[in-house]
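quick q for whoever's on today - can somebody do inverse folding on this one?? i tried earlier but teh output was garbage lol. tokens:
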């Protein structure tokens, strides 16, 4: 995670350790409750990136791809977390990871941003 001029940059890397190519269908970013009790309403807030640099639509076998997602600056309440989900096109290999509020607060500052 990086920050510059009120923007958050999520630098992600997807490694495909199998021989079968991984085709990305879509990626979602949503803020959800950390603890969900049985039979309670789940409140999710989907956030959309402003831009994606080098957006990986497929990862070949035994390869890796990097993508940078750019968001407006935001914070996460203590009782919530950001869930990032990547779904495979016509497949069952879905990847998920979470980002806590502390991770966003500790984002590294970029002093010089070089955009191609």
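ok took a stab at it. sequence:
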């Amino acid at each position: 995670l990086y920050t510059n001029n009120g923007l958050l940059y999520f630098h992600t890397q997807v490694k495909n350790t199998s021989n079968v190519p991984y085709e990305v269908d879509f990626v979602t970013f949503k803020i959800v409750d950390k603890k969900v009790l049985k039979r309670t309403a789940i409140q999710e807030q989907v956030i959309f990136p402003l831009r994606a640099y080098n957006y990986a639509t497929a990862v070949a076998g035994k390869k890796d791809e990097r993508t940078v997602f750019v968001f407006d600056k935001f914070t996460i309440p203590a009782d919530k977390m950001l869930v990032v989900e990547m779904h495979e096109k016509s497949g069952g290999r879905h990847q998920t990871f979470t980002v806590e509020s502390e991770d966003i607060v500790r984002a590294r500052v970029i002093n010089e941003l070089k955009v191609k």
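fwiw The helical segments are 101-105. also The longest helix spans residues 101-105. so keep that in mind when u check it
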